[in-house]
Amino acid sequence: TAARSVCRRVLETYGYVVTDTYTGDEAFTMLSSPKSPQIALLEWDLPSMVAPEVCRQLKAYFEETPSGKVRPYIIIISGRNSINDISEALNSGADDYLIKPWNQEELAARLRVAERTIAVQSELNNQIRKLQDILKKHNLYSDIDALYAHAEHDEDPSVEKKSAAWELLMSHYKMLDSLQKGIDFPKYCAKVFTQLGIGKAVTKPMTQECLSNIRYQIWATMLLVRQHIWLDIIYEISDVSAERFFQKFIMSPPTSEPETREMLLEMMNVATNAIRPAFTTDSSDITIPFPAKVISRKGRIIPFPTAGHAQAFQIIIDDIVIAITVFEYRYDIIEKRISLAATGDILADSLRSPKNQNAIILKAGTLIGEQYSTKLKTFSAQPDEKQTMIRVVEQQQISRFCIPLI
């Protein structure tokens, strides 16, 4: 078509090598091949298979057959401009969406974003391969699994057992740090804590000594919606550092433990909100479904997840030491009948009134709890086969532990 010819000419002007396909089946075959293009522009209405379905099948293919290859960056081009169509395209696995008629500068800008994303993903895959080779070489997989398995079968894990797991993991956090998305996250946190106004914050690698006298754990969580990434941030601080932190900020010593806990919770909430831009500049891309929680080390401690990426370091402000650990893992969105949504599920999409789709009853990111049961029951009064389906995110390991304490 004329539109395809114009697009090809523009791409070649930018120096791209262009290969044409004409049906959805051909696009899937090419993009799933070992020598597939790195970037794909797909029109929505392809013969034999529409573009969102191509994206869904590619996503499933790369999840089922991991090869270390970077999945092609897909931009769907369409004249459809409704929110539902754009959401369907992005939720199917497309990386971007360009509405016709497009202009040359906008296309060029989006292609530059694609190139940057591919470069970061390629570097990430290289780092993962290097880390896997090192772990295999030193047989560390079995050592780490054994330590966690030992702790998970113990109802009241001792500090010594936790310390053993930490000691093994800490020696390899430098490598794990490189899995982050090109962000110097410790440096970013130091800047945030310096802005609290109690002194200049510096960072140091995590050590066993830093964790030996921890009294309080402050847990916060956030979801990166577009990337389907769950982040748990754990701040750990000793009695002595907590008291010094309080005194520097309030200009007087704490009078009770509840007062200390309240101050810690407030300060870490402020820090967590200030840290958000380190993960994304789009505020609408972040959901914080749970309030933060302070947990004392007197009882059971927060369990560590056995999957996902992690980064750990210390923030030091004069004589105050705060240990920070970030756990990052991907989450799945599950579709359920509304009557089967469990307390503790998180809405992946806003729940809208069946009579007025512009009326939002519960926003995306809402934690389903007792207070919303009445609203949900109004939807579940229909026969099962006609019940409203909702998409939810189920809780991860740390939140399942912390939520009953809130």
Question: Which features characterize this protein?
Answer:
single chain, 406 residues, alpha+beta, 7-stranded antiparallel sheet
Question: What Rg is obtained from the alpha carbons, in whole angstroms?
Answer: 24 Å
In terms of per-residue confidence, which ranges show pLDDT below 50 for 5 or more consecutive residues?
Answer: 137-180
Report how far the terminal alpha carbons are from each other: 60 Å
Relative strand content? 15-25%
- What percentage of residues falls in helices of 4 or more residues? 40-55%
- On the 0-100 scale, what is the average pLDDT? 76
Could you say which overall geometry the principal axes of the C-alpha atoms support? globular
Structural class: alpha+beta
What is the topology?
Layout lengths: L1 H12 L10 H8 L7 E5 L7 H14 L8 E6 L4 H9 L4 E4 L4 H34 L2 H13 L6 H12 L2 H5 L7 H10 L6 E5 L2 H4 L2 E11 L4 E10 H12 L6 H19 L10 E2 L5 E4 L12 E9 L2 E11 L2 E5 L8 E2 L3 E2 L7 E3 L10 H7 L9 E5 L3 H6 L4
Parallel strand pairs: 1-2, 2-3
Antiparallel strand pairs: 4-9, 5-6, 5-7, 5-8, 6-10, 9-10, 11-15, 12-15, 13-14
